[in-house]
Every structure is written in C-alpha cells, then in structure tokens.
Amino acid sequence: MNVYDGLRIAAMLEHHGFTQTDNIADADIILLNTCAVRAKATDKVYSALGRIRRAKKPDAIYGIVGCVARESGSDAFRKIKDLNFVLGPQSYHKLPEILSDPDTKLLDINLGGLEKFDELPPITKSPYVAYIPVQEGCNHCCTYCIVPYTRGPEISRPFDDIIAETQHAADVGAIEICFLGQNVNGYKYTDKNGKTYRLSDIIQETAKISNINRIRFTSSYPTEMTDDLIELFGTEKKLLPFLNMPIQSGSDNILKKMNRQYSLAEYIKIIDKFKHVQPNIQISSDFIVGFPGESEQDFEQTMDVAKRIGYINSYSFKYSPRPHTAAAIMPDQIPENIKSERLIKLDALLNDRQREFNLSCIDKIFDCLYESPDKTGIKHIYRTPYMQPCIVTTDKPTPMAKIKITSANKSCLHGKIID
User: Fold this and answer.
1) What are phi and psi for residue 415, nearest 5 degrees?
2) Rounded to an integer, what distance in angstroms lies between the CA atom of residue 99 and that of residue 94?
3) In a domain, 260, yes or no
4) Half-sphere exposure in the Cβ direction for 81 (13 Å, CA)
5) Which of 76, 122, 188, 316 has its CA 20 to 30 A from that of 398?
6) Same domain for 71 and 157?
7) Per-residue pLDDT reduced to its tens digit, 344-393
C-alpha cells in the first residue's frame, strides 16, 4: 500500500513541477511515508525525521504522511516543532495546500472516503508491477491491529474505477497487477444498477487486458475466501499459483483472543479447497508470537500448523502493543525474552521450509518477471510465479523470461535464461 501511495504522491508532485532526487540536501520537499502496524516502525519515523531535519536545506518543506501521521496527529508537531505537514493516509492528496503556502502548518488526519483516488493525477509510467488498491480500511477489528484506527472502516472502490486504473497501468508499462486491500478478498461493491462485484470479477476483467501477464492480490482474510475466488485459481492462468493468507496463530484459544473469526480447522479446510482446485498452489502466511496469554502449548500449536501447511515464505513478528487496540491493555503480557525465544524457534522452522521449497525448484523452468539489477549491478533479479527472487546473468534483460533454475538457497534462486 505504501508503494502505491508513494507512486501517486510522486505523480502529484511531478504534476506541480517537481522532479525526484535521491539527495536530501538538494530537496525542496521531503515526505516520509509511514506505517504504524508495528511499534518499531513508528519509532523509526521520529529518528528518521531527526536525520532529515539536520540534512535538509533550511527552507525545505518536510513532513509525514500515512498511518503514523494519523496515529500521532498534532503531537507530531510537538515532537518536531518545525515540521510543515502531518497528513493521514486518506489526506495526502491535500499536499498542494502546503505548496501554495509553505508557512502554513498543515494537519489533516481525518478519515475520509475515497476522495484521494479521484483527485490525484494518474501516473505517467508504471513499474512492471502495478499495485492497485481495491479498498481502504478494515472491519474485522483484530484486537492487535491499529489499521481500523489509522485507515478507518472498510470502503470498496467502484468496480469501473479499479478497472480503469488497471488498464491505465497496463498502458504505461505494467505487466503484473497486484490488487491491494487491508482485507482485499472482502471487496464488495454494488453499482447504481444493483449489480454486485467481488474480487473475482476484478480478476476476470483484468485478465482480459492483453498486456497483463500476471495477477495476484494481498492481504487476504481467511473467512472472506469465497468459492468463486477459490475456483479462479484452477481456471485463470494469469492468476499466480501463490497466496498470502495470514493465520497469525495455530491456537484456537489465541485466535479467539485476537478476534480472528475462524478456527484452525476452518483455516485448514480453506487451504484444502485451494489445493483441490490448484495442486501447484503454494501458501505464505503472517505469524504473531507472544500474544498476551500465549502459553507454551499455544505456541507449539502454531509450530504444528506451520509444519502441516508447509508455508514457502512467511512473515513472523513478536507481538507489538499498539495504541487504540484492545490487546495493548490485556493482562498476561508476554515478557520480551520469551517472545524472542519463540520467534527464533518459529523462524528456524519457516526458514527450513523455505529452503526446502527453493531447492525443490532446481531444474524446473518458470516464466519470470524482471525486477531490477542485483546489488552488484552485473546480474539481474527476476521473480518466479511464487515470488521467489531469481538471479541470472544476462546482458539484455527482458520484461519476461523463461528461466531454468540451476541452484538455490534459503533466500533466492539462481538460473539461466533459456531461448
């Protein structure tokens, strides 16, 4: 979501005559686009603002946008007194107000609607992967999650607007579309004629665009996995055989405390449905360890489900108390040392599975999408249909390539382009 917001902000500033620079000391306006999902991310914002303050030109405008801006509000001006603007994730389209009067302190953290999508100018060039939000906010109210506070209740964008933006992205360079939402598979929009659209309708319409070769979406909520969406994985060839579906915990006790509205058995039943329609599908997940009240038995149940599902790539975190959430004031908070021990143990298991899957890809051939040069600038990185980075040597990288995998480790694949 932040990548998308960053691209749209850049397009808006370009529309006002700005060009991008990598040097803070040269910049006339500096924006820090922020995420508040974890406490560590929020803490980094203010240390980064301090570095920017010291490095920027005296008359440069700077400020924060996104979820930390919404979380901090006017308190951000107290912490950084010469900050110029604080704009929430649904207000950054108001940046031109500060451009017209740099002496103004601009604060807008209101939870609006979908206005920003209408007011921002379109991008003029798309990366090969275009991120297209289909909704804002979330209604699930998991007890650990700050998103309902920072992004508000769930609002689905009009179907025609999404398809128009997707077509535009394809026209200006996109090859892969990744649909976004805090609860992306909960997308539901009813037009003025009474016709209701779901995420499956967006995918099917997008698949008709000839320039688009790959389609995926994130992040999914298990109980929103409707049969029409699941069945698409067996019929739509442009839909990648890869799915991120967070489980968070393998314990029904902890899932209930998290207000995750499914049981472990229901989650596994959904996975089984996917594997029935698409035997080649692979799953990734998100995990939280050390949630308040998590016993050793609860944690071992998480380890058990990680082994059972065999996730190929997952994100795991220690529980991080966030303001405005119910879990932050729950009793039985887990000590940091125990959270750290559990995270190390879970990460070791997940890393072993990721390495095992990567090694199983040796000698296979994948249609891969170009991403960028590697750190050396000599080799190039592509992405497989399972989103693994694959490093190849080539003088002439192409947007798409057939690559035979020659070696692998936990982190990435190596391969060669075949004619």
Assistant:
1) -155, 180
2) 10
3) no
4) 0
5) 122
6) no
7) 999 999 999 999 999 999 999 999 999 999 988 889 999 999 999 999 99
